[in-house]
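seq:
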Amino acid sequence: MRGVVATIVAMPTSERKEASLRAAMQQRAASALMQASITIYNIIADAWKNVTTNTADFKELTPEFYQPEDGGQFLVNTMNLNFGVRQDGATVGDVELPKWAKDHRDCISKFRLALESERVSSKLHNWIDLMFGYKQRGAEAEKADNVFYYLTYEGAKDLDSVEDINDRYSLEVQIMEFGQVPRQLFSVPHPKKLVGCLIGTDQHYLSNVAVYAAEDCKYDNNRIGSICENSWLKMEDIMPGDQHRLHRSPVSAVCLSSDGSTVFSVSHDSMLKMFCAKDKRQLRSVNLSNMSLSSCVLMPDEKTVIVGSWDNCVYMYSVEYGKILETTMAHDDAVSSIFWNKGLLATASWDSTAKLWSYSGHVGVKIQSCAQLLAELDHDTRVTCVTLTSDSSHLVSGTTDGRVYIWDTNTYGLIGKYEGGPCCGFQIVKCKFPSYSFI
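struct:
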């Protein structure tokens, strides 16, 4: 032991500091291993008690607590890992649930219901103000009793400017152990979420919307009114007039020219194809992307095809010039659906948003962008389809959790959010308005 001490003492100052730092980190790691079974998150009731009574405990639930589609599997020790035992001798395994939860799936489902409840939704903006908004720092934070230690704020200390290794280590440990306040995103109060639009409040709008569910693609006539009565209930009576295999992968969308002579199709094989129905021959095959194409719309002048892709982009392809006129990075995830009407382009995406764009088409071959973003409409889950009324005054969007949203395109406000009735639990794959608009 004396030899070890003598060696350290004989080291230069910088090496001695590094050796001391390594020893401290090893000691801390060993201590963490010894305390793992004590500090590991394994009882929801205990965690709740700590955060509501202990002023030094700032835990918040991660997004997994609100994703019932995952079934709460993160709460289950499926790999039977050895996490040790608690101080009372109990083995640490699956996370212990509250008494009101039947199982892990039921627990997460109820967490999601609570999050989406009117009570939470009506107060959610207050939490945003505290965590990301104008009450995070400054005088408003002091008024809200929302002030933390100065090192917890981003940018409070430039670590790169700290030359002393011990000082820097102490700062890093402080940040590692106690965390940091999120980046401030808003400097003004966040708007309150619109709540209270339940089934029965706006049936005038809903009675004009036809909705298909993904399970069997039948009309849901119980909660959402069908406008076509029984006209499409006997699909077996419809016989194909002609068939042509143009793509190697599933066809995701088609559109027709006004006279029905030309068919435009897009597929998961990333190809846009033009087919002459009269001559029964392929006119054009274009590789627009290296990922699947999801949707297509033919502009009224039939000179431009708008295509949505899983690479997050929307492509404007010129039929006349045979080239891509514009590529717009429209979303943060795959574009699932597009719809155009009277100068408005609506796009849907797996990033849980629908967007409205101003787009009246290209004149000739323009270099500058012609699509201008007007609004971003947030949803709870992936958006699978969008459509507009004939006068473009309202937009309807469908999501993977079986909900239908109706929006006002003038104010960009949400008119209502509706469950898909018996088809709830299956994603909405198609929404359609009648040819007439709202009165």
